[in-house]
Amino acid sequence: MIELTSRSASPIARFGGQPIAIAAAALVIVVLGASSIALWRAYTGNAPETDRTVAARQLQARTAQASEQLVEKTKGLEATQQESIDQLQMVQDQLQTMRRLLAAQQADTRKIAEQMGGLTEAVNGLRQSFASARETETDAAPAPRKRSVKAKPRASRSANRSRAKSRG
Predict the structure, then answer these.
(1) Quick one: pLDDT at residue 155?
(2) What percent of the chain has pLDDT over 90?
(3) 61 pLDDT exceeds 50?
(4) What HEC string does the chain produce?
């Protein structure tokens, strides 16, 4: 048989390789553990399992409460987010309407500008035709004649003769 030193010896070898010795050692450990629990219960007046159970239930209650609070906050955030989305949609709709109105106004402004250009050209054409008509009138009209001093009495004389004939 191989001899083992105490440093490298397995627990079984230390107890002489006897299964009874191993069982006895395990029993001693269990008894010590049980007596420790009994001493703990006697010292505190409570069983550690009961304390752990109470602590676990309190932790469960706190966790459930925190979970409910998170659910409520999440619902509140969802509602706020939906309101924000609705408001943003309204603003976008208003912006689209304003863009359409602005485009229509710009189109109207272009039409008016084109009409003003046409009217300006028509007025300038009328001015030019009026100016040229004046020039042709002044060129075509004869210069006023100067009447001599003798011509006036003739006209008076002939008028007087006509009157006299009609009287008599």
Answers:
(1) 53
(2) 36
(3) yes
(4) CCCCCCCCCCHHHHCCCCHHHHHHHHHHHHHHHHHHHHHHHHHHCCCHHHHHHHHHHHHHHHHHHHHHHHHHHHHHHHHHHHHHHHHHHHHHHHHHHHHHHHHHHHHHHHHHHHHHHHHHHHHHHHHHHHHHHHHHHHHHCCCCCCCCCCHHHHHHHHHHHHHHHHHC
